[in-house]
Amino acid sequence: MRPSLLLFALLLAAALAGCAQTASSAGNFKGAKKEVADTIEQLQTAAQNRKPADICSEVLARALVERLKSSGNDCVDEMEKITGDADDFELDVTAVTITGATATARVKARKGGKDSAVTTFSLALEDKKWRLTNFGAN
Length: 138
Fold this sequence. Notes:
This protein has five helices and four strands; from the N terminus they run αααααββββ. By secondary structure, the chain is an alpha+beta fold. Helix 1 packs across helix 2, helix 2 runs antiparallel to helix 3 and helix 3 crosses helix 5. The two termini are 18 Å apart. Residues 14-22 have low confidence and may be disordered.
């Protein structure tokens, strides 16, 4: 697995909260920042429900899906591999920055109440909706 997919696998696994439901961190934001945080929440929900096709069609930017295809991968297959390996994790959006039609979301992944990883997701406004343009960076 490529390093960027490995990091994303950790963070997406973090989205899979097992049986426990946690409060949404999107509620900590308002306006466009809340919409960005909602995209991270949508990622978590689709992962929890084991719906990799929803991640590819509703959460990821088209350019990212196309990059997966051009590198010989299928988006749904990649997301299926990642969501199929769930542990007891949760994602918290801690900060959102918006600059025009792009945004970043700082996300803390936790397992069992302990911090596991912190990453920054990049997003772009696509069809009036915020979508992930990368798999996160430290």
